[in-house]
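The pair is listed for reference:
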Amino acid sequence: MSECRDRRIKVIIFNAPTHRDYNEAIHPQIKSKMNEWANETCSKYGMHYIDWHDYYLPDSMFRDYNHINTEGAKVVTPMLRDTLMKLGCI
């Protein structure tokens, strides 16, 4: 992290949308621990955490259960760009 700070590189943890079946298979306690860790880590190091794991996309926008395809990227990318702009990251 110090190298990123020295170079003024902003670090962002991005939890991208995942397929609802994949998302439902993850135990709620694990999701909670992941969010707790991400929030604590981001707070400690001055990073941003963007959590869209449960953002709904239709099945047709996923390549597999954990990765969006080109159509999904056409939806998510502009939203991510706008969010990063609002956060002052770009």
